[in-house]
Structure prediction request, 183 residues.
Amino acid sequence: MIFIALGANLEHPRWGSPQATCTAALGALAAPDLVPTRRSRWYESAPVPASDQPWYVNGVAELATDLDPAQLLARLHGVEADFGRVRGAVNAARVLDLDLIAFDDRVSAPGEVPILPHPRMHERLFVLLPLAELAPAWRHPRLGFGLSELIAALAADRAAIRPFPGDAPQSLASPGRAAYIRQ
Prediction:
């Protein structure tokens, strides 16, 4: 299973709200060799670390692809650039953020890019809660903990995240198309 995290906290001049921008980014990722198959519901979350930035919209999507992790990360960065993302200060407000959080059960060797699983995913409820909607039995391949254990460790942060009302996880592609990609 391949998962990416999506996030934004700035309005986009074309797509509008951060939620609409994240939805448009999922559409922009779709290609013959890359199929978004499912997405979690959208969440609103406070900036990490705490700041006076607007709250973020976050979610997680599952992908099917023949791309290797480095190619997929390059594709994610390309979509970010197409949406006007300019990488500047760490933790700055952004129009779009796409992170590769897990690629099957791969664990990167020291110095390998991309780092898999994402090196800070286990510290972020805005990644763990949406991921739990898509893969509740997922276990962190480096740490060995399940999602429920990782989420419980961050219980003090629960006030800083809330699901969008009325939103629900969604299937995005036909199972046949996704199965064709991963053969």
